[in-house]
Each structure stands twice: as structure tokens, then as C-alpha cells.
């Protein structure tokens, strides 16, 4: 209140432009109340966990345990490899679905229908037990073995996760390809570019803008879904954490430990996603959004300048 | 200018192959017949204007010339060669995609909505097709692209993305992009219809300059002033047929057909 009077009454510095509006902002009392309630609930939860029968000391003890680190490595390997299968399969399926050939497009439709319509966990178990259907695998002179020797836990996990992912990626890629304006295809064709070159040079780079954000989501999802592969006897982070928990007598603590590791990994992935999205936003907006680091720098400079004027 | 005049005078119609020749071209979309038998001829070096109300089929006809649309009946020739088909004896064979692309290299097209590639800068837009399709080296293509951008007055905008350019600038980049393929024929599909009135002039200047250099141009336009000044021939289309044709000055100032008269009275 006094502040307003002071600036309004100052005769020494007349404002250059029209006088800025100085008004007392509306007080949103509801916001204060809800903020207080939210903080109270948060504190209560943290307090409950801190008081609970949990031996928090066990978490740092095992945080960098060799088995945990191996588990983290295997989880990352599974994520990367299954996503690679998923993305490649997804692009193939999307192009198949969009093709004018009714046979390929309906096969792609059927694939997506099946793999999207059944739970991953069920698919994993089915892959694991396919030995009941195929006793041997015989690829002529190339490869021949018993099914159970061929279908290692790793391969089962990769196929189960990757083929399932391909169905989702196919829909994401298809949406991306359809989102590109038809005029782009026409312009490329009018310049004498072939179908495949148009797809590669003109359509896919633009489709990426639509494809990348949901794909980032899928990567993060995949990282968490890998915890299911313990059912096909492939040990990864979750399985190792469980094992340690059972042997060390701190099972719940190890679940927290695993959760922390998953959080760390997904956080790193989100940062990567941000920069990939930024790369593909080239040309779509007049100027690229600033990176977080640029934002921090900008804030620092405005903050310091504000201080200077205040002083 | 003199080059163009001399070129015009010593290209009598009987000796040379027409750049575009349409014989009874029909086109339907489903049950809607858009073109109902178009006959016309575009001579080399000529600026050929197509005017008419919207929905009259002029854009469709233009798109048939580089086979973006397939015709249903009739024959369409570009530089003496059938568009989209190969004739052997009595039979017509559809061309493969690759063969169609080969022919499109020599036909530049400028769209109403520019259709620049938004993920590439102006310069990259212009060098894309020469490098990818013609196999020109990057440095060579870049040099030529800069010349072309300079010609359309945008050399200083080479590094800008389309979203950073005005409509008129985008359309001029689009013209440079088409010219980079050294086409023998340029198709303009209402190149100024999506532009603010004050930006139209820049684009028309570029087109005028192009016409003076002797380029064969087929222009679908609503710019009657441009048609009158720059055009060598003009066709008025309505409802899928050619209603009237002749020299732009004659048709625009003294239309014979009633339909042409009523259209022009609304436009001029």
C-alpha cells in the first residue's frame, strides 16, 4: 500500500510511456489453504515412512552392490534392444498398414490387433513355453537346435517385449506419417523425387516431430516393463533386488532401492527425450525453446539485474 | 527482353513440337467429372494463362500435366511425349513410378500453398532435388542455389526456415526450388492466391522476369493484370471445358462468350 503511494507520488521521475497499472492483486485465499493442506499431507506421508519399520540403512548399503549394478546394466540392455526391435518393427508395420496392397495392410492390421490385444506378461509366458509347440528349431544348414536351447531367457524376453512394442510403435509411426501434409508429398514428387526418397528425405523427418514424444513415453514404459521378464527367468534389476532382499532379510528396503534406480534411469531418459524433441522441432517454430541450461542462465541474469535495481 | 521477342518470332507453330498438347482430356473424381474434354496447345517459350471460376477444373488440368492426377480419357503430351503412359502400337502401358519421376524432373511446379519443406532452410529446400535427384555435387548445387535465391531477391534469407519467411518470400523460394532443376516447363497453380495483396507484386515480378528469359509457363491465376501484360495466350475455363481462348488482350478486353463476360465483369 505504502509502496504504491510512494511510486505514484514521486514527482522526480515521470514515466516515459503511459503510466503502468499498479493495483493490489486479487488474493486467492483458496490457494493458500489448499497449499497448506497439500504440504501437511506430504509431511504426514514422509513422517509415516520415516517412522515405519523400515531399515533405511540397508538401501545405501546395497545401492552400488555388484548384483544391483549388473541388474541395472541388464535392464538397460533389455530396454535398448527391445525398443530397437519395437521401433524397427513399428516402422515396417506402419508402412505395411499404409500400403495400397490389401494383403500386407491386413497382415499388419492383424499383427497389431493381436499384440496390442493381449497382455505382455501373457505373451512373455507364451514365448517361454513355445517349446511345447516346437521341439526343434531347424533353419536348414544355418542352424539347428533343440527349442529350449535356442530360446534362452534373453531371447524370450527380447522377443516378448520387442514384438509387443512393435505393435504400439506401428500406431505411433502411422500417426506420424499421416500427420505430414499431403502437399509435401506432391511437392517432392513434382521435383522428380521417387516414393522411397520422398519418404526418407521429406516425410519421415517431419513425421519424427509427431513420433518422438510418444516414443519417449514408450521407452520409459519399456524400462519399467522389463521388470516383468523375471517370469521368464531372465535376471534384471528387479529380480536381483528381490534376491538380495530375500537373502539379506530386508526385502521391502530392496524394493525401495529398485524403485530409486528406476527413477534415476527414467529421469535421465526424460532429459534425453527433451533434447531429441528439440532437434526435430527445427523449422516448425520460429525459434527453438531454450534448453533448461539457457533458461537457468537467463533467470540468473534477470535475477541479478533485479537485485541491482533494487539496491 | 529482346531474346524473348526474337525467340517468339522465329518459333512458328507448324515447325516446333508443342510443349504441352491436350486432346480431349477427361478427368473425374468418383462420379464428378471435373474435366470434360480439354483441347489446347502450349507453344515453347510461351506464357499460357488459365483463368476461370473456382471449380472450373483449371488446377486439376495443371496437375494432370505432371501426372499428379491421372487422366481418365484423352491424350496429354509434354514436349511430344505422352504423360504417364507409353504407347506401343495400339496399346498404352502405364509408366512405372520411377519413369514418371524421370519425366517430372523437367517440369517445375509452384503450388498455391508453397509446400516448402519446413524442416529445411531456404537454401536446403533449393538444393534438395538437384542433389538427391540429379546427383549434382553439394557445392555445385549450393552455388547455383545462391544464384537462384539472388535472382528471386532472397540471397540474404538463405539460412532461414520457411516458418521464418513471409508468404511472398516462401513462394519466391518455391520458385527458386523449382528452377533449380532446370525445367523446360513451369507450372504455376494460383501462385499468388494465398498471399497478402501487398506481397503479390514481388512474386509476380519474379514470374515476369522468368517469362522474359523465355521460360515456357502455364499459369493458373486470378491476376488479370499479369495475364494481360505477360501472357501470350489465355484460356477461359468453366465447368470442365474451355469456353474461350485467344490472346489475353483480346479475351480480357473483348470477351466473345457470355460466360466469359459475366466472369470478367465480376473479377475486373
UniProtKB/TrEMBL annotation, chain A:
Q: Which domain of life is it from?
A: Bacteria
Task: Name the Gene3D superfamilies for this protein.
Answer: MetI-like
GO CC, any one term: ATP-binding cassette (ABC) transporter complex
Where found, per UniProt? Cell membrane
The protein's predominant localisation is membrane
* UniProt record, GO biological process: amino acid transport
Topology versus the membrane: Multi-pass membrane protein
Annotated ranges, domain ABC transmembrane type-1: 72-273
For this protein, the record's SUPFAM superfamilies field holds: MetI-like (SSF161098)
Q: CDD domains, from UniProt?
A: TM_PBP2 (cd06261)
MF terms in GO: transmembrane transporter activity
Q: Which family does it belong to?
A: Belongs to the binding-protein-dependent transport system permease family.
Question: Quaternary structure per UniProt?
Answer: The HisPMQJ complex is composed of two ATP-binding proteins (HisP), two transmembrane proteins (HisM and HisQ) and a solute-binding protein (HisJ). The HisPMQ-ArgT complex is composed of two ATP-binding proteins (HisP), two transmembrane proteins (HisM and HisQ) and a solute-binding protein (ArgT).
Q: What is this protein called?
A: Histidine/lysine/arginine/ornithine transport system permease protein HisM
Automatic annotation (TrEMBL), chain B:
Q: Which reaction does it catalyse?
A: a polar amino acid(out) + ATP + H2O = a polar amino acid(in) + ADP + phosphate + H(+)
Tell me the superkingdom of the source: Bacteria
Q: InterPro entries recorded for this chain?
A: AAA+_ATPase (IPR003593), ABC_ATPase_HisP-typ (IPR030679), ABC_transporter-like_ATP-bd (IPR003439), ABC_transporter-like_CS (IPR017871), MetN_ABC_transporter-like (IPR050086), P-loop_NTPase (IPR027417)
Q: Recorded E.C. number(s)?
A: 7.4.2.1
Instruction: Tell me the GO molecular function terms.
Output: ATP binding; ATP hydrolysis activity; ATPase-coupled polar amino acid-transporter activity
Keyword terms: ATP-binding, Nucleotide-binding, Transport
Q: Name one Pfam family in it.
A: ABC_tran
Q: Which residues form the ABC transporter domain?
A: 20-264
Of which family is this protein a member?
A: Belongs to the ABC transporter superfamily.
- This protein's name: ABC-type polar-amino-acid transporter
Amino acid at each position: 500500500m505504502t509502496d504504491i503511494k510512494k511510486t505514484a507520488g514521486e514527482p522526480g521521475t515521470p514515466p516515459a510511456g503511459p503510466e503502468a497499472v499498479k493495483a493490489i492483486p486479487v488474493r486467492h485465499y483458496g490457494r493458500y489453504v489448499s497449499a497448506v493442506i497439500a504440504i501437511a499431507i506430504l509431511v504426514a506421508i514422509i513422517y509415516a515412512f520415516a517412522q515405519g519399520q523400515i531399515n533405511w540403512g540397508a538401501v545405501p548399503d546395497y545401492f552400488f552392490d555388484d548384483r544391483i549394478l549388473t541388474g541395472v546394466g541388464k535392464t538397460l540392455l533389455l530396454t535398448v534392444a527391445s525398443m530397437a526391435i519395437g521401433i524397427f518393427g513399428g516402422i515396417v508395420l506402419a508402412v505395411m498398414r499404409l500400403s495400397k496392397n490389401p494383403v500386407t495392410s491386413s497382415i499388419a492390421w492383424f499383427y497389431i490387433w493381436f499384440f496390442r490385444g493381449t497382455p505382455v506378461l501373457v505373451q512373455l509366458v507364451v514365448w517361454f513355453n513355445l517349446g511345447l509347440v516346437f521341439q526343434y528349431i531347424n533353419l536348414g544348414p544355418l542352424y539347428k537346435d533343440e527349442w529350449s536351447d535356442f530360446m534362452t531367457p534373453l531371447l524370450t524376453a527380447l522377443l516378448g517385449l520387442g514384438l509387443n512394442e512393435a505393435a504400439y510403435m506401428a500406431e505411433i509411426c502411422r500417426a506420424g506419417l499421416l500427420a505430414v501434409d499431403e502437399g509435401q508429398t506432391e511437392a517432392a514428387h513434382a521435383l522428380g523425387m521417387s516414393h522411397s526418397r520422398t519418404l526418407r528425405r521429406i516425410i519421415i523427418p517431419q513425421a519424427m516431430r509427431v513420433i518422438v514424444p510418444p516414443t519417449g513415453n514408450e521407452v520409459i514404459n519399456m524400462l519399467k516393463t522389463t521388470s516383468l521378464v523375471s517370469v521368464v527367468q531372465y535376471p534384471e534389476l528387479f529380480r536381483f533386488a528381490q534376491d538380495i532382499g530375500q537373502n539379506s532379510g530386508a526385502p521391502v528396503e530392496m524394493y525401495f532401492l529398485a524403485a530409486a534406480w528406476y527413477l534415476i534411469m527414467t529421469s535421465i531418459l526424460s532429459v534425453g527425450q527433451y533434447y531429441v524433441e528439440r532437434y526435430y522441432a527445427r523449422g516448425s517454430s520460429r525459434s527453438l525453446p531454450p534448453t533448461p541450461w539457457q533458461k537457468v542462465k537467463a533467470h540468473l541474469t534477470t535475477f541479478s539485474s533485479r537485485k541491482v535495481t533494487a539496491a | 527482353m529482346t531474346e524473348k521477342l526474337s525467340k517468339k518470332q522465329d518459333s512458328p507453330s507448324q515447325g516446333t513440337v508443342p510443349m504441352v498438347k491436350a486432346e480431349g482430356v477427361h478427368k473425374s473424381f468418383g462420379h464428378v467429372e471435373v474435366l470434360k474434354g480439354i483441347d489446347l496447345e502450349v507453344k515453347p517459350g510461351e506464357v499460357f494463362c488459365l483463368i476461370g471460376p473456382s471449380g472450373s477444373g483449371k488446377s486439376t488440368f495443371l496437375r494432370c500435366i505432371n501426372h499428379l492426377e491421372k487422366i481418365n480419357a484423352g491424350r496429354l503430351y509434354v514436349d511430344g511425349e505422352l504423360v504417364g503412359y507409353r504407347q506401343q502400337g495400339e496399346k498404352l502401358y502405364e509408366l512405372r513410378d520411377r519413369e514418371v519421376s524421370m519425366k517430372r524432373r523437367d517440369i517445375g511446379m509452384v503450388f498455391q500453398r508453397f509446400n516448402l519443406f519446413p524442416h529445411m532452410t531456404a537454401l536446403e529446400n533449393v538444393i534438395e532435388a538437384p542433389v538427391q535427384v540429379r546427383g549434382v555435387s553439394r557445392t555445385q548445387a549450393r552455388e547455383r542455389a545462391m544464384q537462384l535465391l539472388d535472382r528471386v531477391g532472397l540471397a540474404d534469407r538463405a539460412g532461414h526456415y520457411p516458418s521464418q519467411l513471409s508468404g511472398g518470400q516462401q513462394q519466391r523460394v518455391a520458385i527458386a526450388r523449382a528452377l533449380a532443376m532446370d525445367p523446360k516447363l513451369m507450372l504455376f497453380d494460383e501462385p499468388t492466391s494465398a498471399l497478402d495483396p501487398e506481397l503479390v507484386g514481388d512474386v509476380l515480378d519474379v514470374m515476369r522476369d522468368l517469362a522474359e528469359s523465355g521460360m515456357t509457363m502455364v499459369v493458373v491465376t486470378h491476376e488479370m493484370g499479369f495475364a494481360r501484360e505477360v501472357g501470350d495466350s489465355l484460356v477461359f475455363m468453366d465447368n470442365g471445358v474451355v469456353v474461350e481462348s485467344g490472346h489475353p488482350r483480346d479475351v480480357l478486353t473483348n470477351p466473345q462468350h457470355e460466360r466469359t463476360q459475366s466472369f470478367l465483369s465480376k473479377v475486373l
